[in-house]
Amino acid sequence: MKGLKKSIKVDIVIPVYNEESELENSVKRLSGFLNKSFKYGYGIIIADNASTDSTLDIAKNLSKRIPHISFVHLDKKGRGRALKKAWMASTADIVSYMDVDLSTNLNHFIEIVDSIASGEYDLGVGSRLKKGSIVRRSLKRQILSVGYNILLKILFMPKFSDAQCGFKAMKREVAQKLIRMTTNQNWFFDTELLLLAE
């Protein structure tokens, strides 16, 4: 099983816009975790969304210094745009993304990838709204998030609980099929992708 896992490749995309203060530490932390605990082949792709600070320079420097790290640059902003570009170019078996602040416990990343690599699921998403989730964010952001997901439940009755959590993974062929059907390039991309997946 160990050899089989190593033959499976996972791409992790980190979409960023003006994240010069956080990017290097976060990528080093993620890379260190994966080197120590991850049993799959992997690549970390920093997707720069037209940053105006030194984010792109940091991404370039990291890609030169640390194995498994690469970057893509986009001239226009948009998380959906960045994920589409990175995922459509990927040759990995599984594609994923996470927010640059790595706010989700990274051990859960292993769980989500295991469930896809085993063939049990095509797609996995994180949720900040499940019972037992520990969330550290402002009351205003929490209210907006809950309100948005309640509105989605009313309009579409989806089975997922958190459309906007920056912690998702799926089989590459599934991602690429869904991407061809999506129209949003920005913040609504996640929601559209998940609704199409259902």
Quaternary organisation of the protein chains: single chain
Query: Rg to the nearest angstrom?
Result: 16 Å
- Kindly state the number of beta strands: 6
Shape: globular
Distance between the termini: 31 Å
The largest sheet has its strands arranged as 3-2-1-4-6-5
* Alpha plus pi helix count: 8
Outline the biggest β-sheet: 6 strands, mixed
Structural class, please?
A: alpha/beta
Q: Helicity, in percent?
A: 40-55%
Mean pLDDT: 88
Order of helices and strands: HEHEHEHEHEHEHH
Low-confidence runs: none
| SS strand fraction | 15-25%
Task: Provide an overview of this structure.
The protein is built from 8 helices and 6 strands. It is an alpha/beta fold and 198 residues long. It has a 6-stranded mixed sheet with strand order 3-2-1-4-6-5, with helices on both faces. α2 links the parallel β1 and β2. The longest helix is centred in the last third of the chain and has 18 residues. The two termini are 31 Å apart. The model has no long low-confidence stretch (mean pLDDT 88).
